[in-house]
Specification:
The longest helix is centred in the C-terminal third of the chain and has 25 residues. The chain folds into three domains: 37 residues; 73 residues, Cytochrome C biogenesis protein (Helicase, Ruva Protein, domain 3, Orthogonal Bundle); 53 residues, no CATH class. Helix content is 66%, strand content 0%. With 184 residues, it is mostly helical. It is elongated. It starts with a helix and ends in a 5-residue tail after the last helix.
Protein backbone atom coordinates (compact mmCIF):
# COMPACT_ATOMS: atom_id res chain seq x y z
CA UNK A 1 0.00 0.00 0.00
CA UNK A 2 1.52 3.20 -1.14
CA UNK A 3 0.46 6.61 0.19
CA UNK A 4 0.46 9.78 -1.78
CA UNK A 5 3.43 12.15 -1.40
CA UNK A 6 1.25 14.95 -0.01
CA UNK A 7 0.06 12.77 2.86
CA UNK A 8 3.58 11.85 3.83
CA UNK A 9 4.91 15.37 3.57
CA UNK A 10 2.15 17.94 4.18
CA UNK A 11 4.48 20.91 3.68
CA UNK A 12 6.22 19.54 0.64
CA UNK A 13 4.86 22.17 -1.74
CA UNK A 14 6.37 24.95 0.41
CA UNK A 15 9.77 23.30 0.35
CA UNK A 16 9.77 23.46 -3.42
CA UNK A 17 10.06 27.26 -3.40
CA UNK A 18 13.25 28.78 -4.55
CA UNK A 19 15.69 30.30 -2.07
CA UNK A 20 14.89 33.73 -3.47
CA UNK A 21 11.17 33.30 -2.69
CA UNK A 22 11.99 32.14 0.82
CA UNK A 23 14.18 35.21 1.37
CA UNK A 24 11.33 37.52 0.29
CA UNK A 25 8.88 35.72 2.60
CA UNK A 26 11.33 35.95 5.48
CA UNK A 27 11.85 39.69 4.90
CA UNK A 28 8.07 40.30 4.72
CA UNK A 29 7.52 38.37 7.94
CA UNK A 30 10.35 40.25 9.69
CA UNK A 31 8.94 43.59 8.52
CA UNK A 32 5.44 42.71 9.84
CA UNK A 33 6.85 41.69 13.20
CA UNK A 34 8.92 44.89 13.42
CA UNK A 35 5.86 47.06 12.70
CA UNK A 36 3.81 45.20 15.32
CA UNK A 37 6.57 45.48 17.91
CA UNK A 38 6.99 49.21 17.24
CA UNK A 39 3.26 49.72 17.70
CA UNK A 40 3.30 47.91 21.02
CA UNK A 41 6.41 49.59 22.39
CA UNK A 42 5.87 53.25 21.46
CA UNK A 43 3.14 55.23 23.23
CA UNK A 44 0.40 56.80 21.13
CA UNK A 45 1.28 60.16 19.64
CA UNK A 46 -1.70 61.93 21.24
CA UNK A 47 -0.53 60.93 24.73
CA UNK A 48 2.65 62.96 24.40
CA UNK A 49 0.83 65.95 22.90
CA UNK A 50 -1.79 66.17 25.66
CA UNK A 51 0.55 66.01 28.63
CA UNK A 52 0.41 68.98 30.97
CA UNK A 53 3.07 70.27 33.33
CA UNK A 54 3.34 68.18 36.50
CA UNK A 55 1.43 70.64 38.72
CA UNK A 56 -1.50 70.67 36.31
CA UNK A 57 -1.38 66.89 35.91
CA UNK A 58 -1.65 66.49 39.70
CA UNK A 59 -4.61 68.89 39.64
CA UNK A 60 -6.16 66.72 36.92
CA UNK A 61 -5.66 63.60 39.04
CA UNK A 62 -7.30 65.29 42.06
CA UNK A 63 -10.28 66.37 39.98
CA UNK A 64 -10.55 62.91 38.42
CA UNK A 65 -10.69 61.36 41.92
CA UNK A 66 -13.60 63.64 42.85
CA UNK A 67 -15.63 62.80 39.74
CA UNK A 68 -17.50 59.60 39.00
CA UNK A 69 -17.15 57.58 35.81
CA UNK A 70 -20.50 57.58 34.07
CA UNK A 71 -20.32 54.01 32.78
CA UNK A 72 -18.47 52.21 35.58
CA UNK A 73 -19.90 50.82 38.77
CA UNK A 74 -18.91 53.39 41.41
CA UNK A 75 -15.42 54.09 40.06
CA UNK A 76 -13.81 57.49 39.84
CA UNK A 77 -12.52 58.92 36.58
CA UNK A 78 -8.98 58.38 37.87
CA UNK A 79 -9.54 54.64 38.44
CA UNK A 80 -11.63 53.87 35.37
CA UNK A 81 -10.22 52.38 32.18
CA UNK A 82 -13.41 52.97 30.17
CA UNK A 83 -13.07 54.94 26.92
CA UNK A 84 -15.60 57.50 28.16
CA UNK A 85 -13.50 58.09 31.28
CA UNK A 86 -10.44 58.69 29.10
CA UNK A 87 -12.46 61.17 27.03
CA UNK A 88 -13.62 62.97 30.17
CA UNK A 89 -10.05 63.14 31.48
CA UNK A 90 -8.97 64.64 28.12
CA UNK A 91 -11.81 67.14 28.38
CA UNK A 92 -10.71 68.13 31.89
CA UNK A 93 -7.11 68.35 30.66
CA UNK A 94 -8.18 70.76 27.90
CA UNK A 95 -10.09 72.94 30.34
CA UNK A 96 -7.16 73.02 32.77
CA UNK A 97 -4.83 74.07 29.96
CA UNK A 98 -7.39 76.78 29.03
CA UNK A 99 -7.07 78.15 32.58
CA UNK A 100 -10.48 77.14 33.98
CA UNK A 101 -10.82 76.80 37.76
CA UNK A 102 -11.79 73.52 39.42
CA UNK A 103 -15.27 74.78 40.28
CA UNK A 104 -15.86 75.94 36.68
CA UNK A 105 -14.77 72.54 35.37
CA UNK A 106 -17.06 70.70 37.80
CA UNK A 107 -19.95 73.05 36.97
CA UNK A 108 -19.41 72.39 33.26
CA UNK A 109 -19.43 68.63 33.76
CA UNK A 110 -22.52 68.77 36.02
CA UNK A 111 -24.33 70.92 33.46
CA UNK A 112 -23.45 68.46 30.74
CA UNK A 113 -23.83 65.11 32.56
CA UNK A 114 -25.93 65.87 35.65
CA UNK A 115 -25.30 65.64 39.39
CA UNK A 116 -24.40 61.94 39.07
CA UNK A 117 -20.91 62.86 37.86
CA UNK A 118 -19.95 64.18 41.31
CA UNK A 119 -19.44 62.11 44.43
CA UNK A 120 -20.65 65.07 46.53
CA UNK A 121 -24.10 66.02 45.21
CA UNK A 122 -25.22 69.60 45.86
CA UNK A 123 -27.87 70.43 48.45
CA UNK A 124 -30.93 71.56 46.48
CA UNK A 125 -34.61 70.69 46.10
CA UNK A 126 -33.89 67.76 43.76
CA UNK A 127 -31.50 66.12 46.22
CA UNK A 128 -33.43 66.60 49.48
CA UNK A 129 -34.42 62.94 49.61
CA UNK A 130 -30.82 61.94 49.02
CA UNK A 131 -29.62 64.08 51.93
CA UNK A 132 -32.45 63.48 54.42
CA UNK A 133 -33.73 60.07 53.29
CA UNK A 134 -31.39 58.00 55.48
CA UNK A 135 -32.28 60.04 58.58
CA UNK A 136 -36.02 59.73 57.88
CA UNK A 137 -35.68 55.96 57.45
CA UNK A 138 -33.66 55.74 60.68
CA UNK A 139 -36.30 57.72 62.60
CA UNK A 140 -39.07 55.50 61.21
CA UNK A 141 -37.20 52.37 62.26
CA UNK A 142 -36.63 53.76 65.76
CA UNK A 143 -40.33 54.62 66.05
CA UNK A 144 -41.35 51.10 64.95
CA UNK A 145 -38.94 49.52 67.45
CA UNK A 146 -40.18 51.79 70.24
CA UNK A 147 -43.83 50.99 69.49
CA UNK A 148 -43.18 47.22 69.48
CA UNK A 149 -41.23 47.50 72.72
CA UNK A 150 -44.02 49.53 74.29
CA UNK A 151 -46.67 46.98 73.27
CA UNK A 152 -44.66 44.16 74.76
CA UNK A 153 -44.81 45.60 78.31
CA UNK A 154 -47.99 45.34 80.36
CA UNK A 155 -49.82 48.63 80.26
CA UNK A 156 -50.20 50.55 83.50
CA UNK A 157 -53.71 50.01 84.78
CA UNK A 158 -55.88 52.97 85.53
CA UNK A 159 -57.92 53.29 88.71
CA UNK A 160 -61.16 52.65 86.78
CA UNK A 161 -59.77 49.45 85.32
CA UNK A 162 -58.67 48.29 88.77
CA UNK A 163 -62.15 49.01 90.17
CA UNK A 164 -63.84 47.12 87.31
CA UNK A 165 -61.52 44.16 87.84
CA UNK A 166 -62.26 44.09 91.59
CA UNK A 167 -66.03 44.22 90.95
CA UNK A 168 -65.75 41.35 88.45
CA UNK A 169 -63.92 39.18 90.99
CA UNK A 170 -66.50 39.96 93.68
CA UNK A 171 -69.34 39.07 91.32
CA UNK A 172 -67.59 35.82 90.43
CA UNK A 173 -67.20 34.89 94.12
CA UNK A 174 -70.85 35.75 94.85
CA UNK A 175 -72.07 33.58 91.98
CA UNK A 176 -69.78 30.78 93.05
CA UNK A 177 -71.20 30.83 96.61
CA UNK A 178 -74.77 31.07 95.35
CA UNK A 179 -74.64 28.19 92.88
CA UNK A 180 -71.94 26.19 94.49
CA UNK A 181 -68.69 25.04 93.11
CA UNK A 182 -68.51 22.29 90.50
CA UNK A 183 -64.87 21.62 91.35
CA UNK A 184 -65.73 19.81 94.63
Amino acid sequence: MQSSPTLRRPFARHAARSPRQRDWLFCALALCLAVLAAGLITPPAHAAENRLPEAQESRLRELARELRCLVCQNESLAESHAPLAADLRDEIREQISAGQSDTKIIQYLVARYGDFVTYKPPFNSRTLLLWFGPFVVLLLLLWVLWSFHRRGRPAARSAAAEEAMRETHEEFRRLKRQYGSDDD
